[in-house]
Amino acid sequence: MVRLIAVFVASLVFVSSCFAGSNEPFFPVNNVVRIVSPHGWGQGVLLGQHRILTAAHVVDTEGKRAKFSILDKFGRKLGSATVEKAGQRGNVDLALLTLNLSENAPSVDAITISVCKENAVPGEELEVAADATQYSTHASSDYVEAYKNHEYSTATEAFFSHGTSGAGVYSKAHRCLVGIVSRQDSWGGADIQGCLSDLVKEQPRDKVCKVKFGTEFVAAEDIRKFLAN
Questions:
Q1: pLDDT tens digits, residue range 86-144?
Q2: How many angstroms separate the CA atoms of 165 and 114, rounded?
Q3: How many other C-beta atoms lie within 10 A of the C-beta of residue 138?
Q4: Which residues of 175-195 are buried (b: 16+ CB within 10 A; e: fewer)?
Q5: For the whole prediction, is pTM greater than 0.90?
Q6: Which of 1, 35, 9, 24 is CA-nearest to residue 108?
Q7: Which phi and psi (to 5°) does residue 50 adopt?
Q8: How many other β-carbons are positioned within 10 Å of the β-carbon of residue 48?
Q9: How far apart are the two ends of the chain, measured CA to CA in Å?
Q10: How far apart are the C-alpha atoms of 54 and 179, rounded to whole Å?
Q11: CA distance 113 to 209
């Protein structure tokens, strides 16, 4: 296995040996950063030299000139970041940050991450990388939209915590970024706590309370358009 090293000497160096169909392990968790502000924190994805992709709502409450502390997945400080551009959280919940490295920033393992050419399809195996953990889940069949006559999913089946906002969602099969975590969601016509109690009793979810759970993400196509503009 090739060990991918990002050495912080004036700039970040990303080396890629992960391709679709490769038998090599895929570790996007190595590209996770935590974005910290005086009022909270969220996740981000190192895309390349000095670039971090995250959700707009992680950074849009702090002002256009705000600086954010950037930590690696182990909580070590890498430097600070400013917002290069941001979308509207209710429309395209994405933001691109510029990372300014500290002189004593630690070295980290990192891979080159590409944005998927296709959106996630319902039932597709996904991985969500946040903090120092890589979670396995699937693309939800409850949150489906259509693009170019093809249905695609905009949520994971798993319900992640609020601190996961801005985290990368990856296609396990294609080894690429297929989404950015935007928000947690639940909807339906019944009390959620009661529904959870019924679920614990192993009663069918749709028979008991008709409540849908999921963690919504910005789809790959929207990410590609955002980065291209």
A1: 998 888 999 999 999 988 888 878 888 999 999 999 999 999 999 999 999 999 988 88
A2: 20
A3: 16
A4: bbbbbbbbbbbeeeeeeeeeb
A5: no
A6: 9
A7: 65, 20
A8: 13
A9: 36
A10: 10
A11: 39
Per-residue tokens: 56: 């707009």
Going by C-alpha positions, the residue among 219, 29, 3, 182 that lies closest to residue 113 is 29
Burial 5-30 (b: 16+ CB within 10 A, else e): ebebeeebebeeebeeeeeeebbbbb
Phi, psi of 199 (to 5 degrees): -65, -40
Q: Which of 12-16, 59-63, 195-199, 206-210 has the highest mean pLDDT?
A: 59-63
Residue 166: is it exposed, middle or buried by C-beta count within 10 angstroms (0-12/13-18/19+)? buried
CB of 63 closer than 8 Å to CB of 20? no
Residues recorded for the chain: 229
